[in-house]
Amino acid sequence: MKWKDALKDFALYLKIERGMSLHTVNNYTLDVQKLIQYLEVHDMSLNPLQITSENIQDFIYEMAKDINPRTQSRLISGLRSFYDYLIFENYCTTNPLERIEAPKIGRKLPDTLSVKDIDGIVNAIDLSSAQGERNRAIIETLYSCGLRVSELTELKISDLFFDEGFIKVTGKGNKQRFVPIGPLTQKYINLYKDHVRVQIKIETPFNDTLFLNRRGKQLSRAMIFTIVKNAASKAGIQKNISPHTFRHSFATHLLENGADLRAIQMMLGHESITTTEIYMHVDKSHLKEVVHKFHPRT
Predict the structure, then answer these.
(1) What is the spatial distance between Cα 175 and Cα 172, in angstroms, rounded to a whole number?
(2) From CA 244, how far away is CA 242, in angstroms rounded?
(3) Range from 76-85, 210-219, 259-268, 279-288 carrying the lowest mean pLDDT
(4) Tens-place pLDDT, residues 280-294
(5) Residue 68 belongs to a domain
(6) Residue 56 located in a structural domain
(7) Cα angle at 215 between 177 and 244, to 5 degrees?
(8) Which of 30, 42, 110, 139 is deepest in the core (most CB within 10 A)?
(9) Among all residues, which ones are annotated catalytic?
(10) Do both 170 and 237 map to the same domain?
(11) In terms of C-beta density within 10 A (0-12 exposed, 13-18 middle, 19 or more buried), how is residue 185 classed?
């Protein structure tokens, strides 16, 4: 078995069988490519089925000199998935990463913005340009619906169910969910859609895509990051924020105002409730209020 063939088949498996996004597939295959580069540098002519746990341990040890524990843990996870795939396809029977433990890493609490910060960012957007109307709608949608960047860029006009008060979101693994959307965000989307988007010459594959660039094509992830960074800078926000910050703020503000964790999980599209539970650590004062309000002994 050649590395090139195995890597190509692995990528197809992740995309077709697992339904992973192109971004995630690239990250997983990059982990395997790092192992291939390591073997080449050390003149080790081993194919995927000849790799041992000792080879992997030596590789991880060398990589650990230059990467932090979180990245190291992700690298191990990517390689483990690659060998799980080979086992799934009956190319081998054991995973050389089976007994290799990822480093212990603390759970990183998400950065959040206050409602005042978010209002400041929205108000700082220059609405004198067509892009300003679009950018306001983008930031409002990120915050009011808690979307991932990829979910925002993939959002379609046919996914808007404003009469019912929902949008249909396609998340990780092509799983779809309905997320409530408020009147203010609906208003900003309609202003962009009905007065700005209609003026753009749209490329054929993107006729149904909601947010477009000036050339009538789907916005890239990088462009969304740029829009957010520029808006935050104009608002004088000192924090290092990203589009995901609005998603974190969405969940945190809901929890602070008494929303049920299960409901937040459904809106965020988290497969496991444990992923959503990270927001329980953001505002401990909220937890104290819950105990005082609901516990019979307080």
Answers:
(1) 6
(2) 5
(3) 279-288
(4) 655 555 556 656 676
(5) yes
(6) yes
(7) 40
(8) 139
(9) 148, 172, 244, 247, 270, 279
(10) yes
(11) buried
Cα–Cα distances (Å) from 28 to 5, 49, 222, 240, in that order, read: 15, 18, 20, 26
Q: What are phi and psi of 179, to 5 degrees?
A: -120, 135
**Domains held by the chain: number:** 2
Cα separation, 132 vs 151, in Å, equals 21
The alpha carbon of residue 281 and the mean position of all alpha carbons in its chain are separated, in whole angstroms, by: 20
pLDDT at 175: 86
CA–CA distance, 239 with 90 (Å, rounded to integer): 49
> Token pair for residue 268?
């965020």
pLDDT band at 24 (very low <50, low <70, confident <90, very high): confident
Q: Is residue 110 part of a domain?
A: no
User: The whole model's pTM is what?
Assistant: 0.66
Token pair belonging to 162: 């404003």
Domain CATH code at residue 47? 1.10.150
- Closest to 146 (Cα-Cα) out of 286, 276, 22: 276
